[in-house]
Specification:
The protein has six helices and twelve strands. It is α+β, with helices and mostly antiparallel strands. The chain has two domains: about 150 residues, Zn peptidases (Aminopeptidase), CATH 3.40.630; about 80 residues, 2-Layer Sandwich (Alpha-Beta Plaits).
Length: about 250
């Protein structure tokens, strides 16, 4: 990588682009759009109020097959959690270095090389969405609509652990369980309470037990909240869990 590559990558890595940080995600997108405009790409912006805007960058089109490059602008870390760009003799570190500001940058460099070699680019477009890290709840509709216009699609997230090209990904679903109990004083009225936290604990073990590693099915309870204090039987609890699967039979089983 050249010094320009490092400087440009550092510039975008140091912009906090947590999915809920619309300003940062949009700033990241503006920089990519600026770089792509130098390759004669045209920008179509899909404005959003609470998340970053989705960007569709298009080359000139002519007869022949069409390729869509797909990436996302958001990262997983909120402000001040993990923001710095650092490097050592072997690696560089920072939010999005791999997933997926670095991947977007690899795609950009490939397009730059093609443009500098041939002087123009045709039929290769780039869609950058802003909410992938939270499940693409908004952008999935846009991606599905635009994908119908293309013959092929390549996603520039990281390859497999052995640098192989990934041709499929697990299905994923995020679910929520709200549990209502009955509050009571833990000393004087213990028997009159119904402990929502206890029920949440039972639910947690039941959900995790649905994991089947041989079939590559995993269930992870990533967040559990509930209760008021140590002296009160918990009147409420909430679980957030995620399912990942490789086939629909496993999805339906869980």
């Amino acid at each position: 990588m050249s010094k320009q590559n490092f400087d440009e990558l550092k510039e975008i890595i140091e912009i906090n682009s947590w999915t809920k940080n619309k300003e940062g995600v949009d700033r990241n997108g503006e920089i990519f759009a600026y770089w792509m405009e130098a390759l004669d790409y045209k920008l179509t912006r899909y404005p959003r109020e609470e998340i970053g805007d989705h960007l569709h960058l298009t080359s000139s089109h002519r007869e022949g097959k069409k390729l869509l490059l797909l990436g996302h602008l958001d990262t997983v870390f909120p402000p001040e959690a993990f923001e710095k760009f650092t490097e050592d003799e072997e690696w560089i570190y920072g939010p999005g270095v791999c997933d997926m500001k670095g991947g977007n940058y690899v795609a950009l460099e490939a397009l730059r090389n093609a443009y500098h070699t041939y002087g123009e680019i045709h039929n290769i477009d780039f869609l950058l969405v802003s909410d992938e890290e939270t499940g693409s709840d908004d952008s999935k509709h846009l991606s599905a609509k635009l994908a119908k216009e293309y013959d092929y699609c390549m996603v520039f997230e990281a390859a497999g652990v052995h640098d192989e090209v990934v041709t499929g990904r697990k299905g994923v679903g995020t679910f929520f369980i709200d549990i209502e109990g009955i509050a009571a004083h833990a000393g004087n009225n213990y028997s009159k309470g119904a402990d929502a936290n206890l029920e949440a604990a039972h639910k947690l073990t039941q959900l995790v037990a649905l994991t089947d590693l041989e079939k590559e099915t995993t269930v992870n309870v990533g967040k559990l909240t509930g209760g008021i204090g140590a002296n009160t039987i918990s009147p409420h609890a909430h679980l957030t869990f995620e399912l990942r699967y490789t086939n629909t039979d496993e999805r339906d089983r869980v």
